[in-house]
Structures are given as structure tokens and as C-alpha cells.
Amino acid sequence: MEKDKILGVVLGILYYYVLSKIFSFLMLFEFIGGTISGFSKILFFICYIVLPIVILAMPVIIKFKYKKKFYKSIIYSMFSVIIYLIILVIMTFGIRQYFKTFSTEKWSNENWNSFRYLMIDDLKGTYDLVGMTKEEVQTILGQEDVELEMLVTDYAIGYSVRNGFMDWYYYYIYLDKNDVVIRTEFNYWG
User: Fold this and answer.
1) Which among 17, 29, 31, 102 has most CB atoms closer than 10 A?
2) Structure confidence by residue, pLDDT tens digits, 92-131
3) Is 178 helix (H, G, I), strand (E, B) or coil?
4) 3-class secondary structure, 18
5) Does 158 lie in the same domain as 87?
6) What is the dihedral of CA 160, 109, 90, 61, to 10 degrees?
7) Range of the domain at 118
8) Residue 50: how many CB atoms within 10 A of its CB?
9) pLDDT tens column, 144-179
């Protein structure tokens, strides 16, 4: 009986210590990467606030609801942690895959500007912007986020494609004096 209590205390300490570290690292990676939080604030709240609280309470719920010893409730709760991590990986992968294909609707959605960088390769494969007019580009990509005067003969319009923790990425489309695209460039500002 005494052995069960000691085992329960040791496993409880390990469970909560390891989970606090796991949740801290996951939150850090989410702030840096921003996949789920950039996609949906509600989904972020569920994945990073609600589910961790439920997982932290799981041993106590199992102990009292199913009348299990504490160390067994911790062991059963580890399955919920594994399922939680698998769900996070699948959601992150799914969101990234969704944004790998370009569409005007996804690109133009101002809530998803930080996923535009994932669409650039497909955009380049689908449309050859060089030679198009500014109006044709705006039909495909929408109104630019920034306009830069570069030289007397040309200028660029830019689209924010990734807003990171401390850096920003832009997709610039350089135009000549006749508003015809002469080149495109992916730029970093940090």
C-alpha cells in the first residue's frame, strides 16, 4: 500500500513536470511558427489552452471517476498526451498542406496573410507574372500591401507573405514605367 503511494507521488511529479515542459515548448514553437494560431484563433484556444488543461486534470478525473489508484490514472493519462501530440502534428501538417496550393481566395484572405509564403511556389508554377500588367496581377493577387518607389524607371508592389516573431517576408513584383512586370522577388525584412 505504501509502495503504491510512493509510486503515485513519483509518477505524479514526473507527469506534471514533463507536461509543463512539453506545453512550454509547444507554445514557444507555436509563437515562432504560428501555424494553428495563424489559421484560427478558436482552434488555437482549444489546442493550446483547453486541451492542456483537460490533459493536466486527466489523472485526477480518472482517479475519482473510475476509482483507480493514482499511479494507474497517470499511466492511463499518458495515452491522452500521446493522442494530443498526434492531433497537433496532424493539424499542423494539414494546415500547411492546405496552403501549399495557390488560390486567389486563400491569398486574398487577410486573416491568412502569414501563410502566403507556402503558396509562392504553386503561384509561380501556375502563373508567369513576368510580362503581365499591374491590373492583371491585381486580378490574381488582389490589392498590394505596399508600393515602393525603386528607381526613376521602375517600382515594385509588395505582398506580405510571412509575419514572423521578429521578421517579415514580402513578395515583390517589380514593374517598369508602363506597369508591366519585369521580375519578382521574395524578400526578407528583419
Assistant:
1) 102
2) 999 999 999 999 999 999 888 889 999 999 999 999 999 9
3) coil
4) helix
5) no
6) 110
7) 104-189
8) 10
9) 987 766 554 568 898 988 876 667 788 999 999 899
